[in-house]
Task: structure prediction
Amino acid sequence: MPRTNSISIFICLLITTCFLACGLSQNTSKTQEEKTINPHNLDLTQLLQKQPGVYVRGTGYTASISIRGVNSLTLSNEPLFILNGQPIHSYSSLFDMVDRSNITSIKVLKNGGDTSIYGVRGSNGVIVIKTR
Result:
């Protein structure tokens, strides 16, 4: 009987190791930074400047946003913006849509595993913004 228990423990350890090695366990990515609530009533550009890995050039709706530097010489380097689950195609549109006092969280998705669910549109990174 003890032999059966040791075999089942071995199989459990083997399965757990496979899940961890293959990345099939829960995603606890360190690249996702989450900031909640906007205590100083900063505008969206200022909030994005505080996010690690996000580069902001300019201010207001004319700002240029990029994640992980310049990815293309000829195409846009702007990340995909997701506002409450809906994709927004440009930062200027997003800036006009978001009421800065209602922002509850901002997540910056940088690596391929996190952005893969967005396909090619997420190749420059994804910024997920949730509001009340």
